[in-house]
Amino acid sequence: LFAAEAEQTIPLPDVIKTIKLSSNENPHGPSAASRKAMIDAVMSSNRYPWDVTTKLREEIGALTGHTKEHIVIGAGSSELLGLTAVWAALQKGNAVAPDPTFRLWMPAARKTGLEIKLVPLTEKKETDLQRMKEAMNAQTRMVYICNPGNPTGTIIPAAELEAFIKEVAPKAIILLDEAYTEFSNEPSMAHLVNDYPNLVIAKTFSKIYGMAGARVGYVLAHPATVKQLNELQPWANAGASAVSLAGALAAIKDKAFIDYCKKENAAAKTIFYNTLDKLNIPYIQSHTSFVYFNTTGFGKDFKAILEAKNIVGARTFEEGTKWLRLSIGTQDEMKKVAAALLG
Ligand code: PLP
């Protein structure tokens, strides 16, 4: 209602009219419960948020069958991906990662002493666990896996991933990025952290919970590992604000909102799949909130067609190819994408 009223009186700046499909944000968030909790928490911003941090760690622990001692809180999961890479780099060596993948942690890893060994995806754009194992050597300190994968949206079946973790965890830290797991039907690997202190699972409130701007993420790991990571934080678990933490605490209990976002994402994704089918553009079945597709045979500039309609976000992750990734917006936004492309 507020937005509709504002639009009647003041022309919206172009940046607001733009449909942004570049960073896999959730167009439905934050949930009403999170918004209310954040507004209410503004007044407590004069105090350090220890109570709410602890409560959030307890709630996450309970949700995953663990305790608060298994949880590290950070300002988004990317902070914790970097922290884990720095922890791994304390023993100089190398890190093995798929290519392409989510790369934000790599500069910190390189700077602190890890050479990055990139392992190409399979023909089907899947994470090549076999070749990743082969790329490891005695100096491998960390293996990064993003599951489901970014930018591809593919998923490693749980049994296969579990077997990989069992084999590799005795040798190196496994940094498992589960930013998009909630959009898929595969389980988290959270149940393995007590058995494998080298397993570090990174999770975020930025995706299914729709709180990318609030900057809250967490790591799920063995308590001994959590202690190591906490020691690398100037102030353990203190990266997120009182307001953001209150929003996260409300979000984690809001199962109905998560179900809604998953359902909406699936419906909006189907609209985009249908559009790609009509254009004969091949794509990878996605277990996430974005789709990876190959515009080689398209013959026109996919990105420019969308940008002419103020739709931004078609991005290249493999230089020299015409594979693009587009985030999934609302159903309405994906209908606008369809209209732009199909005319
Ligand atoms: N991991 C993956 C695979 C992502 O795609 C992203 C964001 O796009 C992140 C982590 C970072 O999320 P956060 O907002 O929690 O830092």
Automatic annotation (TrEMBL):
Concerning Gene3D superfamilies, the annotation shows: Aspartate Aminotransferase, domain 1 (3.90.1150.10), Type I PLP-dependent aspartate aminotransferase-like (Major domain) (3.40.640.10)
Native source species = Lacibacter luteus
* Residue intervals of the Aminotransferase class I/classII large domain: 17-341
- Spell out the Pfam families in the cross-references: Aminotran_1_2
For this chain, the family text in UniProt reads: Belongs to the class-II pyridoxal-phosphate-dependent aminotransferase family. Histidinol-phosphate aminotransferase subfamily.
The cross-references to SUPFAM superfamilies, in alphabetical order and at most eight, read: PLP-dependent transferases
Q: Organism's domain of life?
A: Bacteria
DNA repair is among the record's keywords: no
Which keywords does this Swiss-Prot/TrEMBL entry list?
A: Aminotransferase, Pyridoxal phosphate, Signal, Transferase
Report what the protein is called.
Histidinol-phosphate aminotransferase family protein
Query: What InterPro entries does the record point to?
Result: Aminotransferase_I/II_large, HistidinolP_aminotransfase, PyrdxlP-dep_Trfase, PyrdxlP-dep_Trfase_major, PyrdxlP-dep_Trfase_small
Q: Name one GO molecular function term.
A: pyridoxal phosphate binding
